[in-house]
Write a sequence for this structure.
C-alpha cells in the first residue's frame, strides 16, 4: 500500500536541520504541503537565523514540493500559535504536526543550572504542548489529525548528564498518553518517536563508526507512517534508528495483593520486594483508569 499525503498539510518543528529536515523532505516528497519551522539557533538553543528553515523550503521546492518557512520559537505561546497560523494562512488546514524541535544543555545534575533545566523543558515539553494546543481545535473541528512527539531513549531509559533533557523527553510521553485518549473521538492520533540519528546534536556523543549508518532518513520512514491515514495506532512509542524499529512501552509487574485492608508493614513490603518487582510476566495498561480497575478487581463483588 503506497503512503501519500496528497491534500494534507504538515507542520514539522525544528525542520531546518537533522531529523526535522529529513521528516519535512519525506512528507513533501509524498505530497504534503509543509510548514518548515526552525528558529535557526545553536544546539544549545542560543542565537537564531532564518537561513535554516529557508534552505529546507528551497530544497523542497527544488524537488517540486510545496513548503513555507516559519522562524518562530516553539517555546513561547504566541510564537507557537504563529507556527500554526503560518500553516492556516498558506494552506488553510493542518493535518499533521511533528513536534521535533529540540536543544541540549548537558551537564551532570550537580553542575546543572536551573536555567538549563527551564530552557530545555521550555523547548521540548512546553514547546510540544504549545504548538499542539494551537493545532488541536483545528484538528478537532476537521475530525482528523496526526501528531508525533519526539522523545528519546535518554528519557525512556536514562542518560548521564541529561537530567533536564531526559525529564523533558519523558514529559512528552505523558502528554501523548493523555492526548491519545482525548483525541480518539476526533480522529486525532498521537504517537511518539524515540530516534537515534547522526545529527549535529549527536555527532560528538556517538561512536564515529556508527555515525555513517545513522541516517536521519531511517527515522523519517517511521514518522511518515505515523503521520499517515494508513496509521491506526495511537499512543505508541517507536524506537527508530540505523534501520532498527521497535515499540517501547511502560510495563508493570503482576505485583502482589496482600488482601483487603491488610495491615502491611514496611517489613512485609521489604520481605516481598522481589515478588512485587518480578517482571517475568509484564503487563501494560492503556490508561490510568485501566490500571485503577485492575487494582480494584479484588474489591468488586
Ligand atoms: P538538530 O539540532 O539537528 O535539530 C534540531 C532543530 O530544532 C534545529 O534545527 C534547531 O534550530 C531547532 N530548534 C531548536 N529550538 C527550537 C525552537 N525553540 N523553536 C524552533 N526550532 C528549534 O538535532 P536532531 O538530532 O535533528 O534533533 C531533532 C529532535 O530529535 C530533537 O527533539 C531531539 O531531542 C530528538 N532526538 C534526537 C536524537 C538523535 O540521535 N539525533 C535522539 C533522541 C532524540
Amino acid at each position: 500500500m503506497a503512503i501519500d499525503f496528497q491534500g494534507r498539510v504538515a507542520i514539522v518543528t525544528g525542520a531546518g536541520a537533522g531529523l526535522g529536515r529529513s521528516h519535512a523532505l519525506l512528507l513533501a516528497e509524498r505530497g504534503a504541503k509543509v510548514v518548515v519551522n526552525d528558529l535557526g539557533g545553536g544546539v544549545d538553543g542560543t542565537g537564531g537565523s532564518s537561513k535554516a528553515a529557508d534552505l529546507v523550503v528551497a530544497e523542497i521546492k527544488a524537488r517540486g514540493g510545496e513548503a513555507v518557512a516559519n522562524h518562530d520559537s516553539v517555546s513561547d505561546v504566541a510564537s507557537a500559535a504563529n507556527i500554526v497560523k503560518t500553516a492556516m494562512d498558506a494552506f488553510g488546514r493542518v493535518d499533521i504536526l511533528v513536534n521535533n524541535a529540540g536543544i541540549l544543555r548537558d551537564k551532570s545534575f550537580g553542575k546543572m543550572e536551573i536555567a538549563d533545566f527551564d530552557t530545555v523543558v521550555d523547548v521540548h515539553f512546553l514547546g510540544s504542548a504549545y504548538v499542539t494546543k494551537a493545532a488541536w481545535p483545528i484538528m478537532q473541528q476537521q475530525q482528523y489529525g496526526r501528531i508525533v512527539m519526539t522523545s528519546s531513549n535518554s528519557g525512556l531509559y536514562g542518560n548521564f548528564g541529561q537530567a533536564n533533557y531526559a525529564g523533558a523527553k519523558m514529559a512528552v510521553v505523558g502528554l501523548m498518553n493523555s492526548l491519545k485518549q482525548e483525541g480518539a473521538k476526533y480522529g486525532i492520533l498521537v504517537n511518539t518517536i524515540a530516534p537515534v540519528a547522526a545529527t549535529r546534536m549527536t555527532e560528538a556523543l556517538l561512536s564515529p563508526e556508527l555515525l555513517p549508518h545513522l541516517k536521519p532518513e531511517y527515522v523519517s520512514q517511521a514518522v511518515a507512517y505515523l503521520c499517515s491515514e494508513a496509521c491506526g495506532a495511537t499512543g505508541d512509542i517507536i524506537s527508530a534508528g540505523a534501520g532498527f524499529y521497535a515499540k517501547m512501552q511502560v510495563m508493570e509487574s503482576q505485583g502482589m495483593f496482600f488482601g483487603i485492608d491488610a495491615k502491611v508493614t514496611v517489613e512485609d513490603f521489604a520481605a516481598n520486594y522481589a515478588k512485587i518487582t518480578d517482571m517475568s510476566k509484564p503487563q501494560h495498561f492503556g490508561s490510568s483508569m485501566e490500571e485503577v480497575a485492575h487494582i480494584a478487581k479484588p474489591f468488586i463483588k
Summary: The longest helix spans residues 114-142. The chain has two domains: 9-248, 251-301. The chain is about 40% helix and 15% strand. Residues 13-14, 16-20, 37-41, 43, 45, 52, 73-75, 100-103, 123, 127, 150, 152, 195-197, 199-202 surround nicotinamide-adenine-dinucleotide (CB under 6 Å).
